[in-house]
User: What shape does this take?
Amino acid sequence: MIKTIDLTKTFGEHTVLREITTTIDQGEVVAIIGPSGSGKSTLLRCLNLLENPSQGYIWIKNREITSPKVKKVEIRKDIGMVFQHFHLFPHMTVLENVMYAPIKVKNMKKELAVKIAKGLLAKVGLKDKIDAYPNRLSGGQKQRVAIARALAMEPEIMLFDEPTSALDPEMVKEVLDVMKDLTQTGMTMVVVTHEMNFAREVADRIIFMDEGKIMEEGNPKEFFTNPKTKRAEDFLSKVL
Amino acid sequence: MNLDFSQIVPSIPFILEGIGATLKFVSVSIMFGLVLGTILALFKISNKKWIKLPADIYTSIFRGTPLILQLMIIHYAIPQLFEYDIPVFLSAVLAFGLNSAAYVSEIIRAGIMAVDKGQIEAAEALGVGYKPMMMNIILPQATKNILPALMNEFITLTKESALVSTIGYMDLMRRAEIVGAQLYRNFEPLLFAGIIYWVMIFILTNIGNWLERRMRKSD
Ligand SMILES: Nc1ncnc2c1ncn2[C@@H]1O[C@H](COP(=O)(O)OP(=O)(O)OP(=O)(O)O)[C@@H](O)[C@H]1O
Ligand SMILES: [Mg+2]
Assistant: This one.
């Protein structure tokens, strides 16, 4: 589904990703964890080309998206992304936020887009908020709208960049629950997170990054009980 | 004190006609400046240097030289080069429009840059193309920053418009001067013109304040 080969990203002199090579299968749920500045967000953002990789290759569904011939807009249609700070469109209602992209990008008929958007908003528990503006919502509600907005494009892959880090503690669960539900649908998910419990319970695989490299990857049980590298051990001792 | 307003009474209609002349050239200049300024602003936010640079140079020139000099060059110097006797109205609109475009482009550029970068990323991540992103997501949010500043620019332009009297355009200012010269009394017609300018600016300022309040309310 997703394959990176020697993916490298530099900002000026600063190398942020170093030869990342990994494969993520269809339907797999991968949690990326690691200390601040280790390149987790950058890796995620390379996958939908919000950042342009400096070197290396990314394949998504047997297509090399790092090829100069590929249109970014085409790639992004199939990849949803959820941000730490939601980035809802403040001048649109909740419903408009969710149905905007299907109408503009996929040329979907408005009636159908409304139907899909309402269905998704019901699923994330926000049926009664469809006409509200984002500034009337709590953080948890905003993030659920953002998830619905991404899902409205019917993506095959969902990327999450610390979706609960900006939330008050009491709102974390409602967002994680929505994400848990999503894993049941067979969605391919890549989640950068500091929620170790979520990573342990929900992920099929953990990728542990440090200094722009994948230091260790493997199934959660093994990783959390028996990390192979010193770095991972140190990291876990700090966050658990 | 030697004041006698009764003497200018017969000339009042003549001076008042200047309001129309001023408003006509100011509004055409604003339109012109707005269109050109928007285009320049879109150039400025481009990440291609060869698009951005000409717009930056343009702005630097028109903001870095006196407006009256630009007006004089357009009205007196250009005709010398092209042997075309340019009408005063056209000179006035060109000078004010080109000059205003430079300021307007900066206002719009700054307004767009002030929109949270996350909005662009969110739109991009959804596969939204550049044009719909600009039209539906960035510009509607930028408008909030842009409109009040644009109103200020229009107010400045209206005030500065009196400069066109120097090339003989029959605006409010010029008419007041003519009446003054005829009567050998300058104070009364100039004061009269001043009151009219003040009223016009007062109205514009209030429209501006009202707009700003409305923009803030929608936050
Ligand atoms: N646009 C950029 N320009 C320059 N440097 C950048 C840019 N984006 C990220 N970096 C740098 O790249 C490094 C990795 O950043 P990244 O955001 O990927 O880390 P992260 O693992 O997501 O950290 P955090 O947990 O704090 O979000 C950091 O040192 C950061 O300063
Ligand atoms: Mg990050």
